[in-house]
Write a structure and sequence with these properties.
alpha/beta; about 180 residues; globular; Rossmann fold
């Protein structure tokens, strides 16, 4: 920690936000609970986050955003701390997933289009004072490589799915890649 802020180091060049019990080597593992292996206990509902601006090449936040009080501020903070060209790997439950609604600590619900608002070329980019140069979103229905699972994962990527089929075929999660 330098000047009260966490910086990447040669041993921990990447940031893992909301790590819980998933402790990853080469990552600064961050959670709000002092679990074994957590490197930094941080309340991510308090802004700005204590991470150096523009220095992190990779930031991971798997099943974190839906737990935070605000839906936009954490994305703005991820943008702030990413280095130019840095990548954020985000995962959230899809709003059609039973898991999105089952957890009483979830505060936000997402569809694939939610993340398009943060793209530099989006027609709603004027809402925010930041934007990502590139965004890739994928709905994930089922893990695996069987023909059925591949078909389902292709189906949930369609506009037809987002507009109509989500009511009948739940999707488990959305995987997002932000590039600053």
């Amino acid at each position: 920690m330098v000047n009260g802020k966490f910086s990447p180091t040669p041993q921990k060049p990447y940031l893992h936000l909301g790590c819980g019990k998933q402790i990853w080597k080469e990552f600064l593992n961050v959670d709000c609970v002092p679990l074994p292996g957590v490197d930094a206990v941080v309340d991510l509902n308090k802004y700005p986050w204590p991470f150096d601006s523009g220095r992190w090449q990779k930031v991971f936040a798997h099943h974190l955003l839906e737990h935070l009080d605000d839906a936009v501020k954490p994305v703005a903070e991820i943008h702030r701390i990413l280095a130019p060209g840095g990548i954020a790997d985000i995962r959230v439950p899809h709003h059609s997933s039973w898991g999105a609604w089952a957890d009483p600590t979830h505060r936000h619900y997402y569809c694939r289009k939610t993340f398009e608002y943060f793209r530099k070329s989006n027609h709603h980019e004027y809402y925010f004072n930041f934007s990502f140069s590139e965004i890739e979103c994928a709905n994930i229905c089922r893990e695996g490589n069987s023909l059925f699972k591949r078909f389902m994962n292709r189906l949930v990527e369609t506009e037809l799915y987002e507009r109509l089929l989500w009511k009948y075929i739940p999707c488990s999660e959305i995987r997002v890649k932000f590039v600053r």
